[in-house]
Amino acid sequence: MTTAAAGSPRTYQVRTYGCQMNVHDSERISGLLEQAGYVRAAEADEQPDVVVFNTCAVRENADNRLYGNLGHLRPVKDKHPGMQIAVGGCLAQKDRGDIVRKAPWVDVVFGTHNIGSLPVLLERARHNTAAEVEILESLDVFPSTLPTRRESTYAGWVSISVGCNNTCTFCIVPSLRGKEKDRRPGDILSEVRALVDEGVLEVTLLGQNVNSYGVEFGDRYAFGKLLRACGDIEGLERVRFTSPHPKDFTDDVIAAMAETPNVCHSLHMPLQSGSDDVLRAMRRSYRSEKYLGIIEKVRAAMPDAAITTDIIVGFPGETDADFEKTLDVVREARFSSAFTFQYSKRPGTPAATMDGQLPKQVVQERYERLIATVEEITWAENRKLVGETVEVLVAVGEGRKDERTGRLSGRARDGRLVHFDAGSLAGQIRPGDIVHTTVTYAAPHHLNADGEPLSHRRTRAGDAAEAGRSPRTPGVLLGLPTIGAPAAVPAPTGGCAAL
Description:
33% of the residues lie in helices and 19% in strands. By secondary structure, the protein is of the alpha/beta class.
């Protein structure tokens, strides 16, 4: 493929790294580009007219990965004049003009605060045949007011806040996404209703710290009220949220989870470490006793609750005794799953310059012990569900071996991954449909259900998946012009775009 012929719309591709925030931001990037007249490129297309990298600065070697991928694109761009490359997200916010200096064939660099500017920046770079770098220090428009192309017919992200007021020493997010900004409850609920009207069954409320939602308008119980309000939305079958911070976790949220039928009994609550000394060094303003106390209250209110977590191994100064305390908390908490990370330096964070940086081999050995302990517990917890009936929301892409095994996959209400046999319903079950089935086997990270499904309910989400429709929420482009379908441009004769 060459770049778009005269009169035909230009194609785009978004490549996403990082957390759920970035995934949802990429949905907005897609929505913006499509509103501006671009068309999504086919997955197999190796030469789209525009490639957007939505980057992460938290993951290890994030910059090496970005510049490696940019390097692979350079010869492609050289052969396809008019192709554009844009870099956004957290790494763009952090590195700014360094990206164009290191990779001068990049056309646009934009940050976490001005996603809505992307179509204008692309057009300006095309017109000027020069790179456009625009990084704002604070949010210009709340991202959820932007048009969004949703990736799933059955599940949707809904941001309730952006930014973070915490100062964890290992995390660079607050400096890249800014202080917490909360949406008004009415705006959030309107977006949820709009998604449900499109057939979406499950919504995940998203924030860097959902428990502190309401801090901007002075209501510390706002998040629990929001959960209860979601319970009044007809057609909304599942509500999840991520991520809460233990320091802000209040009893009213537990009550709202237990008493609101469509709020799932699943809780992802980062632990990070089981050592109070390490938590203090991390500036995590809770201690292990408080953390375990929250879990105890959650399980008292919802005995079936599945609790997952994040854990960092090898934080600077962590001793063998500190690490053993983490293992002790893991054993007591009985997590259904854990995202585990080896600490690595993140430039710009206080932890990167702390004394007591641990040798790689020490961190690796502890990490392997943690994995073994976690998997022993998650396997035991999953085995308790053998013989139980689970409700599965059928998903796309959850089961990497489904094609080989003939199974379908989806998530139970508690968030566990379930691979199931469609039996006599093979060919009838669509992504977004609801199936009840019986668990026949448990592994550390998933459940299998190899008998005939007990029931199958066709849903509007399944209808949309079958028809190839994706939900779209229009948003409001405050202060930003629409562009229309961009016309092709002749091959540039100079400037960055010609490199």
